[in-house]
Amino acid sequence: MLSPLDIALGKIGKNGNPIHPALVHYPLTFLLTASLLDIASFFSHPNYDHTKILTKILSPDHIPVLNSMSYFCTIAALLTSIPTLITGGVEGYHLFFGGSLDSRDVKPGNLHPVVKMTLIHAWLNYASVAGAIYNWLTRRNVEGYSASGGNAIVGGFIVGAMGYAAFLGGTLVYTRGVGVQRMGKGLEFKQRKGGEVKGKNVKVGKEL
């Protein structure tokens, strides 16, 4: 019988794959879309003389549409972030306590580079979700879900934080091999080949 831990790690059947790297694309897309729409809406608002940067592209008639799209994208981001954060937390737990890190080149007392990268990746995502919660709470009772300057600032932070978090996540998976070769065809390859992949900073069978 499958345990909740196995399901969160994607260990479903012989050819199971990690779930978190797939789920993360949903809140990432919704958060970036909502944040960029907030910024576009604010900088095209006719009531702010100093922000009429986009009025030649976006007419005032577009602003209610931008606000509504942004608000509902924020809700979608928060909903899809729940399974994403859960599976990410399980992946982190498995990484920290699963005995899969190669620490031979790490000095005693120092954090493993992968652990440090994972922690930064996680906290950037937590901060981005917190920002999305702020934007949702401050706008849910506002007529037309209008974005304020504060919402636009938070949106700008989310764009930067999520962009860097996505870069770190891709590095963890594709460069460091985190979460791969522990199940399915990857596990079969690891057991069959073993040893070190030439020219790579990833040892087969080890998550660095």
Secondary structure elements and pairings:
Layout: H1 4-9, H2 20-23, H3 25-42, H4 63-97, H5 113-139, H6 149-175, H7 184-193
Helix pairs in contact: 3-4, 3-6, 4-5, 5-6
Can you describe what's shown?
- This is DUF2231 domain-containing protein.
- It holds the Pfam family DUF2231.
- InterPro entries: DUF2231_TM (IPR019251).
- Residues 16-181 form the DUF2231 domain.
- This protein has 7 helices and no strands.
- The chain is mainly α and 208 residues long.
- It has one domain.
- 61% of the residues lie in helices and 0% in strands.
- The relative contact order is 0.15.
Which tags fit this structure?
single chain; 208 residues; mainly alpha; disordered C terminus
Compute the gyration radius: what is it? 21 Å
Query: How many independent structural domains?
Result: 1
Q: Helix fraction?
A: 55-70%
Q: How many H/I helical runs?
A: 7
For the terminal residues, how far apart are their CA atoms?
30 Å
Strand content: under 5%
Q: What's the overall geometry?
A: elongated
Order of helices and strands: HHHHHHH
> Structural class of the secondary elements?
mainly alpha
Q: Report the biggest beta sheet as strand number plus sense, adding barrel if it closes.
A: none
- Which stretches are poorly predicted, pLDDT < 50 over at least 5 residues? 196-208
> What would the average pLDDT be, to the nearest integer?
77
Strand elements, count? 0
InterPro entries: DUF2231_TM (IPR019251)
Domain DUF2231: 16-181
Transmembrane segments: 24-44, 65-86, 152-175
Keywords: Membrane, Transmembrane, Transmembrane helix
